Amino acid sequence: MNSDPFFTLPQDATWNACIGRQGDELHYLDGYIEAASELANAVIEKDMLIKRDTLVLPILYNARHAVELLLKFVTNQLVECGVLAHGHPANHNLQGHFDLLIRANIGDEKLRGNLDLLEPFIVSLTRIDDDGQELRYHLNREGEMSLKGESLANIAVIRASLKRLASIIDALKYRTIDFIDERHGSAHTDRCSRSDLIAITKMLPPLAEWNSDAFTIAREAIKKRFGLGSKHFSDALNVIKANRQMRGMLGEETALTSLADAKAIRVIEEWRKLHPPRDPNEEPAVVNGSDITFEDLMRDVPIRKAVMKTLLTELGDAEAAELEALYYLGRDGYLPEWLDAKVAQVKRKQAVERDLPEQLRHLIDKTNFLQCLQIGAKKAGRLALAAQLERL
């Protein structure tokens, strides 16, 4: 039996590509817009004048198909998270898929803005190929010549437009992914995404000045920019006031359950004994593992023992749990409204492992511990703690 002409795998795996169960949904979307761009670049950069008339068709078709896949991806994601009640019929109607998203008036300024940027491409591609047939076949479903209303297309113009289109596709794709992730938290309303609420918070005066003229001016600007009525504006304010990060942006502290600011500072003071500050003008030294001697390791042991003894005396499980959750809030950037759930997760782990020394040892070994704790404290609304950490 002859080997499969397309799917035989040679011993050299250099050019093996992941497809099917090893692939990803977005590979289709990325692949078609990348193929369109690469073909347009090749025609011009390789001076392929003879192939202009043949390659322009797959260039435009790949671009059209990428847009279709983008619209279907965004729609399916929004249906899955409950923002849209239903999707569009499974067809190749670009305008129909686009209109569904526009009519939905999605509660996210960035998504709406990116859809507006996509509209000229929808209009152009729908005009020449409204059902995905004319760029693929010489004759359409009615047996008439495809693209009969057109006679010329300039590949240099197409290439420049593809660059803009690729940027819009990326922006819509990644904003959709982030929007869905944000919906898993509680910081959104029917009309405002978390991203919108952060932007609104930045437009508001400090919470202590909400009875001032500055608040009235900000309110009208916010309602106009985001198209909010009084109820939707009130809903946004209620979420903002209840959110750790947003309250902090408005100058209001949010307490932690167990970890006092003074305890967090003490941890950093002990951590500093293992990680003294480096001269900012000094280049970081490169240390090879083979150059570290047994004496170097032993020199660190008494300091480490003393630090661990102090921390185990001053910190309990609950305080260590919040300390760890704050560190990872700063390092990994999970949503601050998940902080309490993250603390609970650490506590469940503590109950199983029962090894507080190892938990603390893991934290104090982090060279970025101070930096990430400071970021985490600020996002968690512990403004005074964040300010103290910033000065250390």
Head-to-tail CA distance between termini: 72 Å
Largest sheet, described in full? none
Label the overall shape: globular
Secondary structure tally: strands? 0
The assigned structural class equals mainly alpha
Query: Which band does the percent of strand residues land in?
Result: under 5%
Quickly count the domains: 3
Average pLDDT figure: 93
Radius of gyration: 28 Å
Q: Tally the helices.
A: 16
Q: What order do the helices and strands follow?
A: HHHHHHHHHHHHHHHH
Instruction: Determine the fraction of residues in helical runs and give it as a percent range.
Output: 55-70%
Q: What keywords describe this structure?
A:
single chain, 392 residues, mainly alpha, 3 domains, 16 helices, 0% strand, globular
In brief:
The chain is mainly alpha-helical and 392 residues long.
Would you mind describing this structure in some detail?
The protein is an all-alpha fold. It folds into three domains: 21-183; 194-249; 261-278 and 286-391, no CATH class. Helix content is 63%, strand content 0%. The protein is built from 16 helices and no strands. Helix 1 packs antiparallel against helix 5 (155-183), helix 2 runs parallel beside helix 5 (155-183) and helix 15 (369-379) packs antiparallel against helix 16. It is globular. The N and C termini lie far apart (72 Å).
